[in-house]
Amino acid sequence: METLEITKDTDIKEYRRQLIVRLSKHDLTQEEIADVVSCSQGLVSQTLQNYATDGFSGIAPVPHSGPTSGLDSSDLATLEQLLSKGASDYGYSEDYWDRSRVQKLISSHFGLDYCLSNISKILQKIRWS
């Protein structure tokens, strides 16, 4: 029989799913479990279904990596070299970089389109902010 193991690394969602399973063993209805855990009856139902099918692995958290960045570490190093040449090397009469100019450089050199707020984050990564 699988045992419920809650550690300091257990996140709140995982804890809640494990608690739902534990409470279901005490003959509580799904509605009662939902009230105790402060969630919907639908979440209780889905959690118990996943547990019935796959055990605790069925209710384990699934990591979400999110979208990948368009610029990898090599690209960031290249961008830093391009910026080091100065804005005048890219046809600007005044030799300074702003987010709009960096945005155009990234678009033309790497073929990637970023919004201005993400340009700020990129500049922070390469310590150009």
From TrEMBL:
InterPro entries: Homeodomain-like_sf. It holds the Pfam family HTH_23. It comes from the Bacteria. This is Uncharacterized protein.
